[in-house]
Design a protein that fits this description.
single chain
Length: about 110
């Protein structure tokens, strides 16, 4: 398991969710469960650039390892996998909302 903890609480948070893809994954999962393809499509549409399958997979694994999200595999053919936020992941809603408000206000002033 990666070491996410730091003496600085802000650095700990950034170690967990501090890249552009993780923020967007969490944002998209705040509205409910999503399948891999749904996340890939939504994130790519937002960034106007495509996230690769490998990068999305790696970020999902890291968020799962950090207990921010879970994945559920359904025993079907073909297999179906859904991702959803844990209560810990859902607790980031206010953080993302604050960032969205700050970004909106910043765009108004520049």
């Amino acid at each position: 398991m990666k070491k996410y903890h730091s003496p600085c609480h802000i650095e700990t948070t950034l170690n967990l969710i501090g890249n552009k893809w993780k923020f967007l994954i969490i944002r998209d999962l705040l509205s409910g469960r999503k399948r891999f393809g749904e996340l890939k499509k939504s994130i790519s549409a937002t960034k106007n650039q495509s996230i690769s399958q490998a990068v999305l997979t790696q970020n999902l694994r890291e968020l799962e390892e950090a207990k921010i999200l879970k994945r559920k595999v359904y025993a079907e053919v073909p297999p179906r996998v859904e991702y959803f936020l844990t209560p810990l992941g859902e607790s980031l809603k206010d953080v993302l909302n604050s960032l969205a408000i700050w970004g909106y206000e910043y765009k108004k002033t520049t």
